[in-house]
Amino acid sequence: MGSFSQEKNINLAIAMKTGEYLTRNLDNVKVVYTRSDDSTVDLLDRPQIANRNKADLFISIHANWAKNKNVSGPETYIMGLAKDEDNLAVAMKENEVILLEEDYSTKYQGFDPKSPESYIIFTLMQNVYQKQSADLAMKIQTQFKERANRNDRGVRQAGFWVLFNTTMPSVLIETGFITHAEEEIYLNSEQGQDYLASAIFRACRDYINDIDNMSNFRVVDKETGKKEISVIEEPGNKDNNGIVFMVQVASASARAEIKSENFKGLTDIVEIYAQERYKYATGKFSEYAEAVKYRREIEEIYPDAFVIAIKDNKILPLQQALDLKKKK
Ligand SMILES: [Zn+2]
Q1: 133 touches 52 (CB < 8 A)
Q2: Mind listing the pLDDT tens digit for each residue in 46-59?
Q3: What is the pLDDT of residue 218?
Q4: In this predicted model, what pLDDT tens digit does every residue of 85-94 receive, in sequence order?
Q5: Is 137 part of any domain?
Q6: CA 69 to ligand 1 center in whole angstroms
Q7: Does 56 fall in a domain?
Q8: Nearest by Cα to 259 from 288, 234, 280, 233
Q9: Domain span including residue 319
Q10: What is the distance in A from the centroid of ligand 1 to the CA of 156?
Q11: Which residues surround ligand 1, an ion (CB under 5 A)?
Q12: What's the domain count of the chain?
């Protein structure tokens, strides 16, 4: 605890402000709070709320404390095994709230937040979103440092229950130390909370923009009229059972204008409308292996690109296409 304030009040204030920034400034963003008042939510339930809502990001906001009253500055955590005592201590402090819950030993499968050995379970986690989580965490720390002028204590890893079992990129933010006299005042001030919340917001915005760029489109034209685009009319395809292989580089719910600026300089982009999405593909090959080779060539600019098969202007499951081709 700080000299005059409690962590939970700071957390809630910054979380609510972050949510306001996000909803006010970004289209198509929905913010789900695990709590919007002074209630408490079991640690176990917090990631589940995010999972149930199919959230794209999970952000847990906290304030830190330390014996050493000179320590100040925000830290952002991602799931992982703590590399040092300090990081483990932060996870232990945050996990300790489960001791206040009824039946915690059953609910948390015997997990003891105070025992370092208990933290082994977090190594069993699959780090599917590790890279994205780290990316978001980096962006948050950068904003804290550059825009909010805070002492950057970096991106760290430790075993937090709230980051366990989430099905999306997830971070836990320690916004600062309430045991540091000046920082406690900052964390409790309207201005400090605004700075921190807008820093988190900007990091999320940058993260979302990067993801959109990675999936390789910039929506220029929000045309709603669905038009089936005739893509492939390859003469001489007959000896290939009418199958061609292409490399899909992007997919979007809204149409993108086909021009090379929107596709990182690629010029031979075609649009395929399938399953209520506009897909954009490049290259046109009669052999699967050639398409794979091409995918590798553009991997640097389109790391998530993949090979698709097309027959009669429709996308065909790859295996089915390969089987059909064999039968020719
Ligand atoms: Zn906390």
Answers
A1: no
A2: 888 888 888 889 99
A3: 29
A4: 999 999 999 9
A5: yes
A6: 18
A7: yes
A8: 280
A9: 238-326
A10: 16
A11: 62, 94
A12: 2
